[in-house]
Structure formats: C-alpha cells, structure tokens
Hints:
about 425 residues, alpha/beta, eight-stranded mixed beta sheet
Amino acid sequence: MQYADLLIHSARMMATMKGxxxxxxxxxxxxxxxxxxxxxxxxxxxxxxxxxxxxxVRAGGWVGPNTVQISAEGKVVTPGFVDPxxxxxxxxxxxxxxxxxxxxxxxxxxxxxxGGILSTVRSTKLATDQEVKxxxxxxxxxxxxxxxTTVEVKSGYGLMVExxxxxxxxxxxxxxxxxxxxxxxxxxxxxxPPGYSEDEFTSYIVKDMLPRIAAExxxxxxxxxxxxxxxxxxxxxxxxxxxxxxxxxxxMHADELDSAGGAELAAKLGVISADHLLQASDDGILxxxxxxxxxxxxxxxxxxxxxxxxxxxxxxxxAGVPVALATDSNPGSSPTESMPLVLTxxxxxxxxxxxxxxxxxxxxxAHAIGRADQVGSLEVGKLGDVLILDIPNLNYLPYHxxxxxxxxxxxxxxxVWET
Length: 419
C-alpha cells in the first residue's frame, strides 16, 4: 500500500462540499456542505486519497513513517477558494477615479471621458511585459495568501488583437511561474475603443480577433460586457455565437447597470455563467434556472460602487439558479483580491447563509469555470487544494471581517502559504 504524503487531521470542522461535482448545488443543496467533525484528509501525489473523520482515515492505513502530519485541532478546514471572475492582469491603478465616484459621476460617464477600462488599457499598453507580470504576480500572491487556489483571469485591457494576444500569452506565462491554477478567458469585448462605433468594433472582434485567438489556443472562455452603452444584446449575441462556433466556452457580464435582457440572452445562448446580474429581471432569473446557467455574483463590486444595489441572490436560489461568488478583482470597480471579504459581503448584503456563501465560493465557483472535476470540494481523486482556517466555526468566517482567517494554504498537497 502506498502511504499518504500529507495528512491534515483533527479539524474541529471540515466542510467537504461532497456530492456536487457533477452538477452545481442549487436551492436547498446550497446549504449541504458535507460537514465532518474531527475531520481529516489524506493526500498523495497532489491528489486526495482519503476523506473522513480522523479516526476513519487513520484506520484506513494511509499514514506511513514518512507521512507529513498537520494538526488542524480547533480549526476549520475547507477546499481552497475558487475565484471564477477576475480582471487581475493589468498595469497601473485608478485611485484617481475615487473622487469622481464620490462626486456622483456615473461609471459609464467616466468611461466616455476616457477613464475606466480605457485608462487601464493605456497603462497596460505602456508597461513592459515584465512590469505587467510583476504587478499581477503581487495580486495573485495576495489572493493565494487569502485562500484562493484557482483563479479565472480575463484579458480585456488590450482591445486590439495584438494586445489581447499579448495579455493571454502573459496569463499562460504566469500560470507556469506560480502555484495558483489560472483559467484564461478572452474578453476583447470589454469596451469600445476610441475611433470605433460599437458595430464596427463588434465586426472587428468577430472577423479578426476571435479567429486569431482561437487559432493560437490561448483562451478557454469568451466573455462579453453586455450592457447598454457598451455591447448591446445584438452585438453580444453576434460575438458569443461566433465564439461558440470556434469552440470557446461562453460567459457574460449581464444586467449589471440596467435590466436590459442580459440574463435572458445568457439563458438563450446556454452560457456557463452569467455574471453581475444586479438588475436581472424575474423572467431572466427564471430563464437562468431553467437552463442551469450559473449566476456568478460579485458583491465587492456592488459595495465599491456604493449604490446600495445588490444582486437578488435569495430570489435566484429560490428559483433554482446555482449561485457562485467571485471577487471581480480589477483596478476600477473592485480593487480587492480577498475572497474572505466577498463571503462577508455575500452574507450581509446578498443575504446568503455562511454555508451557502462557502458553497458558492468553492464547488459552484469551480463549475463556473469548468473545473468541478478537479477542485472545489474535498473528495477522493480531486486535487489536494485545502485551507486551514484559524477560526472556531464556519459562522466566524463572514462574521469577523477585515483580517485574514487563513492559517495555511495547501496546493496540490504542498504547503504554499502559512502564517
């Protein structure tokens, strides 16, 4: 018998998220976190080989003379957080826009003035590859220290084809250079650059950009900022239909600022996830539920925009929509890397329970990026991505905000961060 390389044992509480690897949790299932008291998980060659109570795992004969043993006594053990929506690859920052926001200048007005996304496009273009990577690495390291072990990363601060290709290549380079798993998404449809009409830029994406991106195999997903004043329903459908023909998996930014039919379009196209959804209609929510589209909710963005408007998560869960959470880490509307903060905001403002929030930040988030067969739960055969949280119970995770609850991060069976 081959022994475990690592045994994490004696956890006061261990949330496994067991049973939702084939389909995301929805409805009452959002609360079924597979809790084990005095829990243990054994890992060999980077993958989980046993899960259960400490007594059960020890009795299974997995512990040998060279097994590294880590006690989680008095602590909470969970899967690593999965962040399924970020714009973390960029250069520069936009703290200068804070004063505009405080004066009540709308986001789309800032964009029209050359700020917002277009400002970051300029900063990223002027930075060297190494500068972009160094700045992004710091953000990824912060994510890791706060428990995130798998991250979706979008392009979208290039807009022109060569700049978008550059961004996606840098994502792949970063994936080889650090321990987090990165999932690349092409989002050339992030803003309409100066000198183009929406229709002209949509045609450019469909005819020039998507075929080039597909030919180089640099992105798994294609995303679109579907919003009046950015990309209309018609433009979004054109882009995503072409992306589907080229074998991209589909995502959408939908109904963030206005109720404009984005959720309904997401359901029609059968995208994997529709994200933001602050203004999604009742019909849109029902359509998402019927098609099994995952709602990726971004409460840190709502919090930072300070409009006191949040996605109707309770209505979504009641309708049967599978809900996931993400940071939306970006330099404008959500300059944070903290999934623990997102869980707090989800409980306070989306009205999720701690159990639902954890489910949304792990296995459902993994489904939103097509990784539920590998991460998001503590089950035999999955990657050994595990967190030891220095908290007495699960309620304490969203309750005590503003500090880092993570004592240790294990990625593929290796300790990669600890206090």
